[in-house]
Amino acid sequence: MMLVESALLIEVPEAERVIEHWRTLFDPSALIGIPAHVTVLYPFLPPNRLDEATLRSLGDLFRNVHPFAFSLTEVRRWPDIVYLTTKPSEPFNALTEMLVRRWPEAKPYEGKYDDLVPHVTVARTSSDVVARQIVADVSPYLPLDSVAQTVALMVTDSVSWTAHTTFLLGA
C-alpha cells in the first residue's frame, strides 16, 4: 500500500452522533475513514517524510500546547459546504500557524484560501433544500461542547484514511 497524503486533525466525537447521518449522505470523507473533525493542517507532509524525526518534532510541538475547550455553535454555509462553526477559533488557528512556521512547505489547503475558518464539515452540497434540512435537524443540538486533547496524524493511500499517530496536547 503506497501512502500518498497526510493530514493533522482534531477529532470531535461529540459531533459525530449529531451529524453522522448527514456526513454519510453528503460528505465523501466520512465513508473513507475520516471522523468528524476540525482540520489543523491539510495537506501535511507526504507520508514518505513522516519519519521518526518528524514525529518527534510534532510531539515536541504539541507537548507545548495545552488542551483547550471549544464549542460547535452554529450551522453555516459556504457555496458547496455546510459546516459547524467553532468558538473560540483562535486555538485552532494558532496550531495551524505553529505547524506552518515549522514546515512552511505544508500550506493549508495548498494555499487556496486566504482566510482559514476552523470548522466541522457536515455536508458537501450546494442544495439549498439539503442545507435547510441540515440546519433544522442539527441546530437544536447546538452548542456542542468539546475539549481538544489530541491531534491525529492521518494518512491515505487514496482509497481510505487511517490514523498513523495520535499526539496528546500538553503531555
Explained architecture:
The protein is α+β, with helices and mostly antiparallel strands. The protein has a single domain (5-168), classed as Cyclic Phosphodiesterase, Chain: A, CATH 3.90.1140. Helix content is 29%, strand content 33%. It contains 4 helices and 8 strands. It has helices spanning 13-26, 52-63, 90-102, 128-138; strands at 5-11, 37-41, 68-78, 81-87, 119-124, 144-148, 150-156, 161-168. Strands 2-1-7-8 form a 4-stranded antiparallel β-sheet. A 4-stranded antiparallel β-sheet has the order 5-4-3-6. Strand 3 and strand 4 form a beta hairpin. The longest helix has 14 residues, at 13-26. The chain is globular and about 50 Å long. The protein starts with a strand and ends with a strand. The model has no long low-confidence stretch (mean pLDDT 97).
